[in-house]
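In the current project phase, our protein records have gained a structure token line. A sample record follows, to show the layout:
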Amino acid sequence: MRTIIPYSNLKKDSWAEDFTPSKEVRQKNMFVQCMGHYKALPGYGVFDRSRLKSFLLLYTTHGEGCIRYLDKEIVLKPGSATLIDCMLPHSYFCSPDCIWEFRWIHFSGACIDGYISDFLDNWGEAPLTAGTRFFKEVYDFASRNDPISFIECSTMLMDLCSKMLIHVIGSSEASSKPLSPVVSSAIQIIEEEFKSDLDLSGVCERLSVSKFYFLRTFRQQTGFTPNDYLITVRLNHAKSLLRSTSMTIEDIALECGFSTASYFIRVFKKHEAVTPLHYRKYFLQSLAE
């Protein structure tokens, strides 16, 4: 049921609506808590709100709004959107001498905090293609009281967060650029020599680059530190051997460049949440079946 807006500096056709999904939906999905469409007049503003277990999506359709959050301020222009963690202090208000028409959604849900933290670490605005249609579809799904609609709504919110995250961290641009010669050469060395006692400081010397430059550039272009990438290559090879051979855990550890079996087991469990032996038994059981 749409509610009457109490703010005198919102146009009369502004509206908001609240939703309260079942406990099961709240435990499994992203879900809409409330949403609305405001047409704000000069003087409208919400200041220093905080301590609400919710995330807020703001999207400008016309005019401009100012958003203050994480010691930053951005101007949200038509076609742009941003996300805010409402546990933290935030303000948003109409830009001077203009009408700010915007749509908003408060939402929450299982497994969302860590996912959205990546966006918040790179907070800013992002374009929202077909934003009006997106809000209409989310509203339609949130208004229905059936399991399929809740899943559809959750999927749309997750997809939106993904696209906004890609925009703010620049992954779409980074993915289209080839790796630099330094990073490409380092990857080749790691993949060819991962079985040895590979010294990453020695890799820097072979590539004639400083350690600081190497670490920064490698992480920017791959998302891994060089050491994490080395461990990933070793673990991938170890998993292949566990599935396809009868080699002992000790032999696999040494074959993959781990100094000891105990270190291998510790690293494997940290990344896979199971021991190498459990991992092997699982796949052997699957093959037998």
In short: Residues 188 and 194 are 10 Å apart (CA to CA). The chain has two domains: 2-173, 181-288.
